[in-house]
Every structure is written in structure tokens, then in C-alpha cells.
Amino acid sequence: MHDLDALNSLFGDAVTIRDGALTVSRVDVLSTSRMDELVRTAVFGEPAAREYARWMLWELGQAVGVQPASIQDLYMARGRGEVRGFTVPAINVRASSYDTARAIFRTAIALRAGAFILEIARSEIAYTEQRPAEYVSVMIAAALREGYRGPLFIQGDHFQVNHKKYAANPGPEVDAVKALVREAVGAGFYNVDVDTSTLVDLSKPSLAEQQRLNYEVGIDILREVRAAEPAGVTISVGGEIGEVGTENSTVEELRAYMDGFAATLPPGMAGLSKISVQSGTSHGGVVLADGSIADVALDLDTLERLSRVAREDYGLSGAVQHGASTLPDTAFNNFPKREVAEIHLATNFQNMLFDAVPTALRDEIYAWLRENAKDERKATDTDEQFFYKTRKKAIGPFKAKLWDFTADNATLASTYDAKFRFLFQQLAIGNTASMVGQHVRPPVQHRPMPADATPAHAAAPDDADLSD
Fold first, then answer.
1. Cα–Cα distance between 377 and 287 in angstroms, integer?
2. pLDDT value of residue 237
3. Burial class (CB in 10 A: 0-12, 13-18, 19+), 250
4. Is the dihedral of CA 430, 434, 438, 441 positive or negative?
5. Among 96, 97, 138, 101, CA closest to 117
6. Which CATH number is 72-439's, of 3.20.20.70, 3.30.990.10, 3.30.390.10, 3.50.50.60?
7. Least confident among 23-37, 235-249, 425-439
8. What 8-state DSSP symbol labels residue 397?
9. Distance CA 385, CA 286 (A)
10. Which whole-number Å values give the CA distances from 375 to 287, 370, 393, in the listed order?
């Protein structure tokens, strides 16, 4: 139990653990390099120490007010017209998650922002090798390290039904999404985007028939979400009517989906808080032969119209735009002006990381991709296109090396800080912390200590050096 005893005394007498309960007497120690040690154990430690570190992080968050929460009540207030004028960024934290999230929380503190989401998609969970319990632990640790206080909106992005697998055998594919829901909610994901838009069948003669599987399977998965909810939490759930990168969504499609959804929803069950639509973007952008990204024809009028109908006719927070991170900087201030509820941002932060890695590490990653992602290369792909599209698949295998590279990397941290500040300002989420505090009050949820954890009770001496 040496490793567990070391974790138990990591913060000296400022954090005590007795009889399965954790107490914090001095919060300042949570913002020191001791937190770096704890989160590294939570990610890379041996199984017993890893689970104990994750339990500690959860309980530390509960003790000081850094708690996973649902954005449901804020979004319902928006649907009622009580709050407006901002767009929530949902940030896919894929690589070097701890240091990336630290930059997000630094920015949030500086701008007094509270309306932002940290998310990871079903596909990203796989290729970044970040299961939900790890992801939640890292987000909590990053918030504690920076001294952030407030609800953490952690979201399962694109909990998606794969069209080909569903067509071949629908039961196991839907069951796989349900299993992920149970795992994610159990870890602290209290916001979930259920994506069954892959099942829209455009060969059907009417919009209602085209959307039928979308809302029927979506509600089937929604039942699993509601069944998994902890006491006192109504999970914010999003639906989707159009795949990013295809034809732009229409008001008629939105109505067909929402009317069918409302008619099928079991009585008394909470429904959706938002609706994802397509207005011209694509995930990761369209990569040109030289590795640059093609310009996007974003249809803001369509986005505004869909968002208004979602709010006024269905009580949702509004429309959600995916695939937004590679848009030009001039685009972002349009989203709050058009009252878009939420936009999803992912690829550009990954690009910033890969642009900064040392040449030797980049060469190692690209050599790995040549061998392990070669089946994904199209005959027409240039090297630039191939590496741009596939390098995300190296995030998991190179997780430790990328983590080590970003640790205390002041240049990259400054680059992230500037980008997040720009986005938060453009999306008008500065000073939303008080608004979040007014509408979102997550319940305290203590968890039992891991069954195989029996650390010693002794704390470090009073004069232990806990400086950063």
C-alpha cells in the first residue's frame, strides 16, 4: 500500500482522509505541483493507485465546489427567454488534456466565465485512450490546479449510432451506445449529445418518415440516460437532425424531428435541451492538398432561423453548430448575435499542439501513422492531407509523450490562453459565472473509497514543504 500512503500524505495535513471521508483544511495546496502528481497517478498510475487518485480528485472537487453538473437548467432558462446574448463553447479536449484544460480554466477565471462545456466524443474516447472516469478526473484536477470554482459541464459529444453497424445488426450497436451512456454518466458526464442523425433515411417519401428512426432510436437511448441519472440531476441531452458536412438543415426537418420526438417521448420524461443542425461546416475542415483548410460557406441565416424555432416553438435553448473550430476568426462573434445556443470546437486546438511539438517527436508520430493508419490513406492523398486527417489517431499511443511535452511548456500555454480568451470574448461568455450560479446548483455527491484502498491515516508534519 506504499503508493496509496504516498497519495494520502501528498497534501500534508491540508487534506486528511479518515474513515473513508476526505476533508480539506487549506485549499491553497490544491493549486500547487502536488496536484500535478495526483493527476498523473490518476492517468498513468498502477490500477489501485490510479483508482484511489481518481477517488481523491472527485472528493476534493466535492469538498471545495468543483463539481460535475448539468447545464440543463441554464438551457431551459434560455428556452424561456430569461437569458440570452451568448453562445456556449463546447470544447473537445483531446490531447494533453490536463494542460489544455488548465488553459481553459485560467481563461474562465480571468473573464469570470461559467458557461462553457468540456467534452469528448464516442470516437475520441477510443482513439485518445481516455475513458470517461479518466476524463472527469483530469478536468477536475485542471480546475483545482488553477483555483477555479463552480460547476463543471462535462459532456459526451456525438454518442453516435454507427449507420453501417446498425444496418447490419441494430441491437448490439444501440446497446453499445447505451453501455457508454451508463459508463459516462457514472463517471460524471451530466451532459450527453445523443446522435442518431446517422439513421435519417432520405429515401423515405416524407420528412416525418425520414426522421422516424432518428427520434425513435434517440428516445430509446434517452431512456437509458434518464435511468442512469444520479439523484438531484437532470442530464442535459441534445438531439441532432443532420450530419455535419452534408446538406444544410431546414426548419421543416427540425419540425418533423421535434414533432415526432414529442409524440413519442414517454409521459413525464424530460426531453431535449438543444438541437444540433448543419449549416455548412465539417468536422476538422476540408483539407486541401497542401494541408491548408478550405474556406467554409457558413449559412448564418439558416442557423439563426433554426435556433429561433427551436426556442420559441419547442422550448429548447436553441441550435447547436458542430465543426466550428476551423472557421475564420471573423466568424465567431456572429454566433451570439444570431442567438446560437452552443458551438463545438475541437480540431484547431489539436492543430496548435501538433504545430508546437518538437521535430523529433513529430517524426516519430508520423512514422507510426505511416504504418498504423495506412489503411485510411486514399490514393489521392498527399502526405499533408494524410497526416492532417489521421494524426488524431496517434493521441492515445503517444499520450504520455504529449503529456510530458506540454507540462510546464510556457510557450504553448500562452498560445492556448490567447486562443481561449479570444473565443470566450467573441462568444460573449465573459461574466456568465454569476448567471450559471443563479441557475445551476449541483448536488454534493460523495463516493465511497475504492474497496481495495486502505491507506494509512497519518498526515505529513505541519512543516512539510507544499510550495509549488
1. 13
2. 98
3. middle
4. positive
5. 101
6. 3.20.20.70
7. 235-249
8. T
9. 9
10. 18, 9, 12
d(CA 431, CA 160): 33
Contact between 344 and 121 (Cβ < 8 Å): no
Compute the C-alpha angle 398/400/404, nearest 5°: 115
Residue carrying C-alpha cell 451568448: 86
Are the CB atoms for 285 and 350 separated by under 8 Å? no
Q: How many CB atoms lie within 10 A of CB 461?
A: 9
Mean pLDDT of 296-304: 81
The amino acid occupying position 266 is: P
List the chain domain ranges.
Answer: 2-64, 72-439
Residue that has been written with the C-alpha cell 459516462 in this structure: 184
Q: Which residue has the cell 483548410?
A: 293
The Cα 238–Cα 255 span in angstroms is: 15
- Convert 307-325 to b/e letters by CB count within 10 Å (16 or more is b): bebbbeebbbbbbbbbbbb
Q: Measure the CA–CA gap between 161 and 196, rounded to whole angstroms.
A: 6
How many residues does the structure list for the chain? 468
CB 187 within 8 A of CB 151: no
Write the DSSP symbol of residue 96.
S
8 Å CB contact between 264 and 213 = no
Place of cell 492543430: 351
At residue 150, does pLDDT exceed 60? yes
Tell which residue, 123, 148, 187, 38, has the closest CA to residue 420: 148
- Per-residue pLDDT band for 244 (boundaries 50, 70, 90) equals very low
279 pLDDT higher than 90: no
Closest C-alpha to 155, from 140, 169, 136: 136
Report yes or no: 242 and 200 within 8 Å, Cβ to Cβ. yes
Residue 389: CB atoms within 10 Å: 18
Judged on CB neighbours under 10 Å (0-12, 13-18, 19+), 168 is: exposed
Report d(CA 197, CA 200) in Å as an integer: 5
64 burial (CB, 10 Å; 0-12 / 13-18 / 19+) is middle
Fill in the amino acid letter for 201.
D
